[in-house]
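FIELD: query
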Amino acid sequence: MAARILHRLRHALAGEAGREEPAGGGEAEDCPESSELEDDTEGLSTRLSGTLSFTSHEDEEEEEEGDGASEELEEPPQAPGAAAGTEDGEWVSVAERPGGSLLTRQLQELWRRSRGSLAPQRLLFEVTSASVVSERSSKYVLYTIYLIRSGQFDKAPATIARRYSDFEQLNRRLRCRFSCDMASIAFPRKRLRRNFTAETIAKRSRAFEQFLSHLHSIDEIRRSPEFLEFFFLPDLQAAQRLTCTGMYREALATWANAYRLQDRLGVCSSGRFLLTLAGLAVCHQELDQLSEAHGCCEQALQLLEAQGSHPLLGPFLQAHIHLAWKVGKDKRRSEARLQDLREVGLALQQQPSLKECLIKEPLE
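FIELD: result
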């Protein structure tokens, strides 16, 4: 090892200098191997570019397929402690040479810290099941997809169920608007036969996972209404219908899933999200879950804090005051905000309730 050789040379030189000097002269420099490795680690981290990866070959392939964040490093230039050339001209990495385990561990820890602090949180799309659905005049495959935050465990994951035609419609709409960005994104083609075989369903499942991951990696597409509404608009529409028909328990589960979908997609400040909170508050209140309904109103009012006026501000304030009185919470701040609305001329008597706003909201 280069560090050991350098260590021995320094001791040899120090020994010779000690013999030449009179007794009581300078002592040999104390230079333990660990300090050599620490210094060398700093040098390597400065010289190497890109992201250090210590995964296996299979793990590297999975990372590249997932989000393309990992880059393949070029061979670094030869330097003391970095790599040594063999007689055949091959490069030997530090981790492969005896005594290099400490340096490897230090580099791994450095890489893990930098990855955890700098890499953005990824959203994974996983097809967990696929079922063949037969209706009166049609037959199709319904794919159930989980939206999962990388490195986290969700007790109640956000899920969607979509068929091939739904993905095809999304692909068509995005290609019309983002033709350049979509040029490099593959989409599974239609088949004239064997659409319901296990092999075809498995291949399409993987293709849909990659398709959604690729779309989500592009900023403009990730924030587009076409992409976002593909995930949560069907749930919002279904939850609204269930609420209108008084099926509050079923509606509550659908509103909750729409909430999780918007949370995973990072759109928790939009009008759709406020409508989702209204749906949750109404259903919780109808099911006599008053504390949960109060919490939903509080979250909505926090989002509306910076807005002087919003169609849902008055209804949320009125609902929050009523629920706070029911559960014994402080309602003075909401009463003060409601009084401010009265002073600017808002006719609160003519304001619809939160439930009426929810039912009348057009969702297309």
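FIELD: remark
The chain is about 55% helix and 10% strand.
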